[in-house]
Write the structure tokens for this entry.
Amino acid sequence: MMDITTEDYETPVVEEPSRHPPNYIAYDSVTDLSWADADATRINCTVVFPSVLNGQPLPYTAGPSDPDYPHSEEIFARAVAGDFGSIAPYVPPAPRVPDRVSGRQFRLQLLALGLLDTVEGWIDAQPLATQIAYQSSATFERGDGMMQAGFDALGFAPEQVDAFFMAAAGV
């Protein structure tokens, strides 16, 4: 008869059940908190997830209701509770300056500013190619050389050109 000892068997490894639901991603730290919207329904932050990208800090947006990612709900709740420090106020993004407007929008904005006659007088004094480009353009591009020359002749600062294009886009 053969003697069997406990050394002949491997002790089975029993994994403990996770205390987190499926899709939960463990995190080490949460920093740089700010509200992501004016209604304070989401928080932008920087999170270190050890299992993601070798633990590199990642930009992250957490919300109160994200059933697919329960760690997001937890981060939001803990952030609101103050566990990670204060949450900076929401700062709306700067308005985007359009890079082009239609010929109609451009000319109507010139008219609204009382500059249509001045600009057309300047155009009339330019080479024929510039006159044709102005008269036949369906769009006016902010970075175009002719645009820059025209705005420079009017004494517009870059911020004024941006404001012109933003207003023209709203016409």
Summary: The beta strands are 29-35, 43-48, 57-62, 100-102, 139-141. The longest strand covers residues 29-35.
